[in-house]
Amino acid sequence: SQQFSALTEVLFRFLTEPKEVERFMTQLSDFATMNKISLGPLKNIVKSILLVPNGALKRNLSSEQVRADFIALGLSEEKASYFAEQWKVNSPTLTRLAVGQTLMINQLVDMEWKFGVTAGSSELEKVGSIFLQLKLVIKKGSQMENVYIELTLPQFYSFLHEMERVKTSLESFS
Amino acid sequence: MAAAREAEFAALQSLLKAPSRDAVRQLCQECFSSPAAGLGPLAQRACPGLAAGPEEAEQLVSALHNLTRHVVYHGLTRAEDILALFPENFHQNLKNLLTKIILENISAWRNEAQASQISLPRLVDMDWRVDIKTSSDSISRMAVPTCLLQLKIQEDAALCGNSPVVSSLTMELSKETLDTMLEGLGRIRDQLSAVANK
């Protein structure tokens, strides 16, 4: 059962940091060597085990339901309860990750800005007006697109005001 | 240089043949607003009554264009400054009329020049909407608010002439992104007030 908890730990560490694939693989092969199991069958078992938390996440299962699922699959009560406990502890992180993976359309990824004064132009020798330039980085599909826009001062204040209204609206729904 | 200026002012004398003061006023406005490339057609259109021939018309239109643009460029606002531009022997009444017309239009022309100066694409309008995401393929039940922002952007006016292209860009912001953006916008506001208060 110590083996099981060690394996569970490895699994959850991977689930909460899905990008750390190499580390996961290394930890799995360490586990295999330490416990004298061959890596191939271990990988298959792990694949099947991983299906449970992923399915649970999709269907918003409670830890009770996860435990019941595992018992139905043939795991001992002790091990199923242990796994369900780990699930409960990690589910906020896992849920947040799943939400983060949800489709976003033209996501705003970054914003840069500068403002300055227009000193003169070819039509006007002395101008002295303030301009604000924004660079918005938008993720379109898998590519980034840069959008440059210029705002006058009144437009900036009105933009700021509208964004504050959006924030209030978002906060009232959280 | 001086000779060219003399010739230009001489060309302005053609305005003495204008049917009315309003005609002169109209012509001044059209000459200011027209870009240098548009002066040829303008000369053909506007001057049949005023000029002896196409060459004279072009010289007149060009002279008016240069005069009005010169005044706007240097930001001359006083009658004395404008009157001083004309040569000594220029027709008195015409000189006064032109000065009067220029003074009437100067601030509108200044705004026109500022509006048409080169710039990055300009924000013309913005709309927003807050949605609540309730489910997705990665998680079947959730309640995540998200913001959709639509910006209407107009390309550089100087490039599009009279029919500016307005494109629309819709983007999505998560709550975190919005918070970060507001932080940035707040900093801009603080810096702007610091500059204004100096």
TrEMBL record, chain A:
<dbReference type="GO" id="GO:0045892">
    <property type="term" value="P:negative regulation of DNA-templated transcription"/>
</dbReference>
<feature type="domain" description="COMM">
    <location>
        <begin position="107"/>
        <end position="174"/>
    </location>
</feature>
<dbReference type="InterPro" id="IPR047155">
    <property type="entry name" value="COMMD4/6/7/8"/>
</dbReference>
<dbReference type="InterPro" id="IPR037358">
    <property type="entry name" value="COMMD7"/>
</dbReference>
<dbReference type="Pfam" id="PF07258">
    <property type="entry name" value="COMM_domain"/>
</dbReference>
<dbReference type="GO" id="GO:0051059">
    <property type="term" value="F:NF-kappaB binding"/>
</dbReference>
<dbReference type="GO" id="GO:0033209">
    <property type="term" value="P:tumor necrosis factor-mediated signaling pathway"/>
</dbReference>
<protein>
    <submittedName>
        <fullName>COMD7 protein</fullName>
    </submittedName>
</protein>
<dbReference type="InterPro" id="IPR017920">
    <property type="entry name" value="COMM"/>
</dbReference>
<dbReference type="Pfam" id="PF21672">
    <property type="entry name" value="COMM_HN"/>
</dbReference>
Automatic annotation (TrEMBL), chain B:
<dbReference type="InterPro" id="IPR017920">
    <property type="entry name" value="COMM"/>
</dbReference>
<dbReference type="InterPro" id="IPR037360">
    <property type="entry name" value="COMMD9"/>
</dbReference>
<dbReference type="Pfam" id="PF20923">
    <property type="entry name" value="COMMD9_HN"/>
</dbReference>
<protein>
    <submittedName>
        <fullName>COMD9 protein</fullName>
    </submittedName>
</protein>
<dbReference type="Pfam" id="PF07258">
    <property type="entry name" value="COMM_domain"/>
</dbReference>
<feature type="domain" description="COMM">
    <location>
        <begin position="122"/>
        <end position="196"/>
    </location>
</feature>
<dbReference type="InterPro" id="IPR048676">
    <property type="entry name" value="COMMD9_N"/>
</dbReference>
